[in-house]
Amino acid sequence: MLYGYKGKLLHIDLTKEKTKTIPLSETILKKYIGGRGLGAKLYWDLIPPGTDPLSPQNVLMVLSGPVGGALVPGSGKHVIVTKSPASGGWLDTYSSGRMTPEMKFAGYDGLVITGRASRPVFIFIEDEKVEIRDAKSFWGKGSFETEDYLKEAFHPDCGEMCIGPAGENLVKYACVNSEYFRQAGRGGAGAVMGSKNLKAVAVKGSGGIRCADMERIFALIQEHYKIFKVSPIGIARHRYGTPLTLNITHPAGMLPTRNFSTGQFERGIGTIDKDGVANATTSDRACYGCPICGCSKFVEVNEGLYKDTKLEGPEYETIGLLGSNLDVDYLPSIIKANYLCDDLGMDTISAGNVIGFVMECMKKGLLTEKETGGLDLSFGNYQTANELLELIAFRKGFGDFCADGVRDMAKAIGRGSEDFAMHSKGLEFPAYDPRAGWGSTITYSTTARGGCHRRAWPPMKEVLGGVHPFTTEGKGQMVKELMDDNCIMHSLLVCDFQGKFIPLETRHFRDYLHAVTGWDYSVQDLYGCAEMIETLIRQINTREGFTAADDSLPKRVIEESHPEGPTKDRVIGAENFKKMKQDFYSVRGWDSNGIPTRETLHRFKFNEDTTFKL
C-alpha cells in the first residue's frame, strides 16, 4: 500500500478527447520522489528532442509531491513541467493553492496533458469523471473572470488553474494562474496551455490522503511552529512578507534599478519597501494547508489614479522589476501593474525586464516613439508602462514586438542592445543583481530553465550569511549545495520559505517524508536523489543542443560595474565567471563543456529505469 501517493497519473489527450490513467511504480516514486524529480523522468521519456514548445506534441504536466495535501508546512504546491517557449528547453514552474490536494483527493498524483483541442476548452475533473467543456465564450477573458466561473460552475473549493489573454496569444512569458493571485509565473507555461486551446483546468475530489504516521506529522508541526515563533527572520517575514527583501538588497547594491544599470534605489525606502507595503496592507493570507507562515499580504490603493485596486501582493520580485527597475517609487502603480499582469496572465518578472529594456533603448536612442507607436516609455513613466502591459497581452501594436521577451527583442534591435538585455537562455533575470553577490552568476547561467533565483538563492549566504560576495572561491560548491537543498524541497513538493524562514533543514523534511510515506530515507539519500535529478535535467537540455556556451550572461553583468554603492568599481570579469562555472561543473560531475560525464551517468543508472509511454 502506498502512503502519501496515489500511484497514478491522469493522461488527457485533447486531440482525441480521451483519457486514461498511467500507473506509477513504487520503484520510480522512491527514486524520483515527485514534483521536479518525477517531472524530469516524465519529460525525458515523453518529450522528444526538437519538439516545438507550442506544438501539439509538447506535453504539459501538472504534478504534486508525496507530502502534498498532508498538512506538511508549505505543501500546498504544484509544479508545471513542460518544454519552455522562452528557452526552448526544460521548464519547471511552481504555484500554490488547491490543485495538489484536490488532484490527490480525486485519486491522482498529477495530470499529463497532450495534443491540441479543436476549440477553446475547459477540463473539469471530479474523481474518475473527466469532462472537456467548451470555453469559447471565455476566450479573451481575464484570469479573474475565468476563475470566478470555474468556482461558480464547478465547485467553490475546486483546485483550478487558468490562463489569461497573454497565454491565448502565445506571449512567451505568459503564466498560469491559480487562486486568483498565485502564478506558475516563469518560462511561458501559459503559452503552452494557450497553444493547446486549453483555457483552464478544475479538479475536485471526494477521497483523502493516507499517511503512514499522522500523529508524528502533528508532533512535527507543533515542534516546528515553536522554532518559527522564535526565528527573527521568520517573525520578520510573517510581519512584512517578501517586500522586506528590498530592505536587504538595496543596501547590498543588489536591487535592480533602471534596467540593472545600478543596484540601489534610495527613493524606494519608505515608499515601495516593507514599510510602504505595510502601510497599504489590509490583511494576511496563508497558502492552503500551511499551518505556520501566513506570509502573503493583501493591499488596497486608497487614493489617486489607481484608487480601489486590490491585490494579494505585490511580492518583492514584482516591486523590484516593475518598481525600481523602471525608476518607479509610486506603490499604487506597482500594485496596478501587478493586478494587470495577474489578470492578463503574464509573469511580472519578465514583464518588468521587458519594459526596463525598452526604457533603456529609448534613453539610448535605439528606439523612438515612431517604433513604439507613440508611447513615451521613458524611465519613471509608469502610466505608459501599464498601458503597454495590455498591448503585450493582446499582441497589439508595439506590444507584439515585446511579447517574445528581451532576447528576441535585442536580436531584432541589435546595435549593442544585447549587452543590457538581462536574461539567460531567454528567461529574464529576477530582482537580484549578480554583481552584488557573485554566486548568482552561477545560478542564473547554469540553471536549466534560465535566469532564475529559485534553484538557489546565494544572497542567503553572500548577503545574510557572512560569505564574501566578491570572490570566486568556493562559489561552485556553495551554489551546488543550495541547489540540492531546493531540489529536495521542489521534489517533495514544499515551499522554499519553510526551509529559509522557519527555518527547516533537509533532516526535518526527511522526517515529514517518513511520517507521510513510511519510507525511511537518510539525509544523504535525499541529497543523492537531488544530484541525480539535477543531472537528468542537465541531460534533457544537453539532448536539446544546449552547451556551456548557453550558460552565459549579458555583458553588463560580467564586464560592467555599478556607478555607486558597495559594488562601485567591482567588475566580475570573464575569467572569474569562467572559473566559477568550471568549479560548478566539476563538483556536479560534469565535464568542461557542462555535459555530465560517463562516470556520473553510470552512477545514476538512468538507462535501467522503466520508460513511460503514452
Tell me about this structure:
The two termini are 25 Å apart. This protein has 2 domains: 8-204, Aldehyde ferredoxin oxidoreductase, N-terminal domain (Aldehyde Ferredoxin Oxidoreductase,  A, domain 1), CATH 3.60.9.10; 222-588, Aldehyde Ferredoxin Oxidoreductase Protein, subunit A, domain 2 (Orthogonal Bundle). It is an alpha+beta fold and 614 residues long. It contains 25 helices and 17 strands. The protein is globular, with a radius of gyration of 22 Å. Helix 1 crosses helix 2 (35-46), helix 2 (35-46) runs parallel beside helix 22 and helix 17 (439-446) packs across helix 24 (574-588). It has a 6-stranded mixed beta sheet, with helices on both faces. A 4-stranded mixed beta sheet has the order 8-7-12-9.
Name the CATH class of the largest domain.
Mainly Alpha
How much is the average pLDDT? Answer: 96
Instruction: Compute the number of structural domains.
Output: 2
Widest beta sheet: strand line-up? 2-1-6-3-4-5
| Major pleated sheet | 6 strands, mixed
CATH architecture of the largest domain: Orthogonal Bundle
Q: Which fold does the CATH topology of the largest domain refer to?
A: Aldehyde Ferredoxin Oxidoreductase Protein, subunit A, domain 2
Corresponding CATH superfamily of the largest domain: Aldehyde Ferredoxin Oxidoreductase Protein, subunit A, domain 2
Number of strands: 17
Fraction of helical residues: 25-40%
Low-confidence stretches: none
Q: What overall form do the CA principal axes indicate?
A: globular
- Terminal residue distance: 25 Å
